[in-house]
Design goal:
By secondary structure, the chain is of the alpha/beta class. Helices cover 31% and strands 25% of the residues. 46% of the residues are buried. The structure holds pyridoxal-5'-phosphate. Pyridoxal-5'-phosphate is lined by residues 46, 49, 70, 91, 188, 193, 245-246, 262-266, 363.
Length: 396
Amino acid sequence: MTRTYQYYKEVFRNESMPFAFVDLDLFDANGIVLKRRAGEKKIRIASKSIRCTYLLRRILEMDEQFQGIMAFTAPEAVFLSQQGFDDLLIAYPVWDERHIKAVCQEIKQGKKLILMTDQTAHIKRIQGIGEKEGVIVPVCLDVDMSSELPGIHFGVHRSSVNSVEKAKKYLKAIAKSSNVQLVGVMGYEAQIAGLGDNVPGKQVMNGVIRRLKKRSIKEVAARRKAIVELIHSKGIDLELVNGGGTGSLESTREEEVVTEVTIGSGFYASGLFDNYVQFKHAPSAAYAIEIVRRPQKHIYTCSGGGYIASGAIGKDKAPVPYLPKGIQLTDNEGVGEVQTPIVYKGDEKLKLGDPVFLRHSKAGELCERFNTLLLVSRGEIVDRVPTYRGEGNCFL
Ligand SMILES: Cc1ncc(COP(=O)(O)O)c(C=O)c1O
């Protein structure tokens, strides 16, 4: 399904800009490919990379292989639980007592919300609150999946548990805590899943990254297996062993101990996911900005557009120029707070009032900029749905 500038221009001919949209035909097609890429594993949806309850539901209804949500904060998980979602793994630690209490309240109602932990301090805190609330709180152990390679820390800084020895200490704290139940293990191999290895113009770097990835995949798989086996040897039955993300499905699905993989970004296929050797998804989400002036023959300046992604500062955090094909940002201005100059020398006859389409570098962050997503299918706007922000939520 190729999408042209004229296709979207016609679809959105009556819309005021800026606006964000999701092309449901491409979104659903991505779902089919992602399911295939996940192999036999269950798929948990990373809500941070969707941030729209309508689309989360749409994924869950696509196929029974999609099960459960990976939430990013406790208030978000509670919000989703109250919207009727269940099986919510909160993937990052929660410390705020009010937030843990709110999670306990949902658990009391019979919902499954799981808190992420990796330190004795997390366990003690949850134990104290769980005891007061009269709840046994399910928790998941976050295992560090980074690799220490000569001269580099290949991965991210998240969990403190990166060995069987450290997992043993953690398990001692679990054993002492009657209001905490260990139900899962999660390990996110960010250096495999979140790092493009086919970036145009970076052949040498791509080669290095692929080699590092190959080495790291083996090492982290062995670590995950050893820790899961240790837990089993203590007589603990795990409900889930979670791994991976959009960028690592081909390797994560090969690990026998893994019961489920996580996928979020692959649905919108945001800019950062353009450059992987093993897959290519269709860009289903984008936003439009309006041409409001033309300072030079080939420069079309648009209103707004400056939606930069989080993470280490770099050009890859800027939006990707999308349609018409061949548009470019300027080095000097990039995407601006109130104006974005677009360089274009192609064949489309652009004029004031016409749209230019860009794609966010990260998937979910697009939704923090818009209240509504226009949903497109077969050449028409078929619905308008709120983002988290459109529902009055700003979780992070
Ligand atoms: C814990 C965890 N799992 C999985 C993912 C993968 O999400 P996505 O598929 O959106 O890249 C992330 C992304 O940051 C994550 O933090």
